[in-house]
Amino acid sequence: MSYQKLLDILSPDRPILDVARAVLSAPVRHLFMIGTIWYLAKSAAGRPLNVLEIGSWYGASALSWAQGLACHNGGRGSVTCIDAWAPFFDMANHADADYARDMEASLASDCAYNIFLHNVKSMPASITCQHMRGQSASLLPQLRRDHFDVVFIDADHTYEPVKKDILESLPLLREGGIVCGDDLNLQLHECDPELAQQSGHLDFIPDPKTGRNYHPGVTLAVAEIFGQVSSWGGFWAMQKKNGGWQPISLKEMPVIYPQYFSAADLARAESHFADIRDNLC
Questions:
Q1: Residue 65 lies in domain
Q2: Contact in structure between 186 and 219 (CB atoms under 8 Å)
Q3: Closest listed residue to residue 26, CA positions, set 167, 223, 215, 210
Q4: Which of 1, 100, 102, 110 has the most Cβ atoms closer than 10 angstroms to its Cβ?
């Protein structure tokens, strides 16, 4: 029996995401993914919206984008997923990181890829979903320029890969499109910049200035390309306008929680959103 068939038997009508590390980012960020579709749909006049995500893991983010399209754009649009679904951590630098070891094992066994394939089957039939398995550096140049309304970057979080993913994806966005990403826990003006500069090759470190953990590679790459960006709970975004990049506001967005959230994910998201909702801009 194939792995896919087994998953279909165990969970025929719903995605498999109520497991450890299935939703890797802070769950509240998925509210802002759905909110980004709301923001774009206001001016889309009903046309399909095309989403590209770089880094898909188990498919949670793909399902959030699809839910945004279903809720705010009449189910019209597409989600294109790029991921190698292959080990990528430099374990010499992350030997003590339990999450890195867990992710490497799930990728090496193809568990993550097979669960992704199962999960995206639950998208509404009106939404086109395709995936490309391989390195983003090879796949991004093959995609249509000026085609996507959203590019979401959530792959390797070390500095060079993040910077490369951002720069190579920008030409793929149409005018008015939004480039966004996950895991901007701290912007460069908020953390110790000298330590960040020294630590871009690492995935996740503590910041002595704030006492918070963050991804220095994401912080550095985003700051170098855009400066300060729109950011909510670690989700960041900038909009393509007249040849430049502008912040956006999600202040009035409807608050919609992903349907696949576990009870624990929902509780975390509700608590986190309550802490930040008054500071939305």
A1: 3-10+24-183+232-249+258-279
A2: yes
A3: 215
A4: 100
